[in-house]
């Protein structure tokens, strides 16, 4: 039994955060039915984006949401569900006859999880956009990248997944707990601008105390500090250095053969020179030599692994952080006592009739 065993969730198929949220909920044990768009232009491409990884753990149910018969049967499914998640532009579900009011009429306890980039309201609510646009507006993107170059996109993990899917899942889980007590569901309005803005809370706190400025690459956690950044090694691979606390910094400079007098940690005027000193030192050995050199110390030095290398690292192997099921993919997170960390594979598709019969 997993934590969400017995919870029934309808996922309206989409890209980005909805798909990731559906995977997380299924990983946690929820019985998730993914309503897919079925065959048609572009459908195969969308399906391939998820594949065996993002679509794991839940069956696809092909539907035509513009077909009145399918709409009626989807409402029947929702009548027996605990929650739904969708990522359409505001107003689309209402036009399909599947908005919060229509669903509440057949199932008042259902949690209606909605995720968009800009949110359900506001001047930009109907505008198109992608992860990069949302984190640009929230202020999160500005601090990422080199100081003398444009901000660098941080994959899609800050907007789509961190600021989007994780807050959608958090909101849905909180509303499910409340619904068990009150018998009434909630509409969860998860916006990637809101979520990614919340992720910058620490930096707003720093700025309020004069400890952060808007000049990228001059701050403690944006690469400005020579003891919190990545360095290139002799083999053109990289190490990540995260020696923030003084005792960890002491271990770092000791491992580099330096003294505290040569390399004072918080002399910010000397940081550029210290950057260059560290760069020269790390360039003298290969990445894995440095990893072995610092292994067992408190210097907070780690090899920067590629996606292909990460599954073979001894720590990841010991924790079974990755698993091979058709393809190599991340295992479940977080872990629960007494639970196998292996995810459930993607099951066979179901028809709408089969899905309804399964939940009766």
Keywords:
360 residues; alpha/beta; 3-stranded antiparallel beta sheet
Descriptive report:
With 360 residues, this protein is α/β, with parallel strands linked by helices. The chain contains 14 helices and 11 strands. It has helices at 17-27, 43-54, 68-79, 92-95, 100-106, 131-138, 157-182, 192-198, 201-208, 246-255, 271-282, 287-294, 314-319, 352-359; strands at 8-12, 31-36, 59-62, 83-86, 111-116, 187-191, 228-232, 238-242, 301-303, 322-325, 327-330. The strands form 3 sheets. A 6-stranded parallel sheet has the order 3-2-1-4-5-6. A 3-stranded antiparallel sheet has the order 7-8-9, with helices on one face. Strand 10 (322-325) and strand 11 form a beta hairpin. Helix 3 runs parallel beside helix 14 (352-359) and helix 6 (131-138) packs across helix 8. It is elongated.
């Amino acid at each position: 039994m997993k934590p969400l065993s017995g919870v029934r969730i309808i996922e309206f198929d989409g890209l980005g955060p909805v798909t990731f949220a559906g995977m997380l909920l299924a990983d946690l044990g929820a019985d998730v039915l993914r309503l897919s768009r079925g065959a048609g232009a572009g459908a195969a491409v969308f399906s391939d984006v998820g594949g065996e990884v993002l679509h794991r753990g839940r069956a696809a149910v092909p539907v035509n949401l513009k077909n009145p018969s399918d709409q009626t049967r989807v409402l029947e499914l929702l009548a027996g569900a605990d929650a739904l998640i969708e990522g359409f532009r505001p107003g689309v579900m209402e036009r399909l006859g599947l908005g919060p009011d229509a669903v509440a009429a057949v199932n008042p306890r259902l949690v209606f999880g909605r995720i968009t980039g800009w949110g359900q309201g506001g001047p930009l609510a109907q505008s198109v956009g992608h992860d990069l646009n949302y984190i640009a507006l929230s202020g999160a993107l500005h601090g990422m990248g080199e100081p003398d170059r444009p901000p660098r996109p941080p994959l899609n993990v800050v907007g789509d997944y961190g600021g989007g899917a994780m807050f959608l899942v958090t909101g849905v889980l909180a509303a499910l707990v409340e619904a068990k007590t009150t018998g009434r569901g909630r509409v969860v309005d998860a916006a990637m601008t809101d979520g990614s803005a919340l992720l910058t809370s620490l930096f707003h706190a720093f700025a309020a105390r004069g400890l952060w400025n808007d000049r990228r690459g001059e701050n403690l956690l944006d690469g400005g500090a020579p003891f919190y950044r990545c360095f290139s090694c002799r083999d053109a691979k990289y190490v990540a250095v995260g020696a923030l606390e003084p005792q960890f910094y002491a271990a770092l400079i000791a491992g580099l053969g330096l003294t505290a007098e040569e390399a004072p940690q918080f002399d910010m005027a000397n940081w550029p020179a210290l950057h260059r000193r560290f760069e020269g030192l790390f360039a003298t050995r290969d990445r894995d030599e440095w990893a072995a050199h610092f292994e067992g110390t408190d210097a907070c030095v780690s090899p920067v692994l590629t996606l292909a290398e990460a599954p073979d690292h001894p720590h990841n192997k010991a924790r079974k952080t990755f698993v091979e099921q058709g393809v190599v993919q991340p295992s479940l997170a977080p872990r629960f006592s007494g639970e196998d960390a292996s995810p459930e594979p993607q099951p066979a598709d179901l028809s709408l009739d089969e899905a309804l019969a399964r939940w009766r």
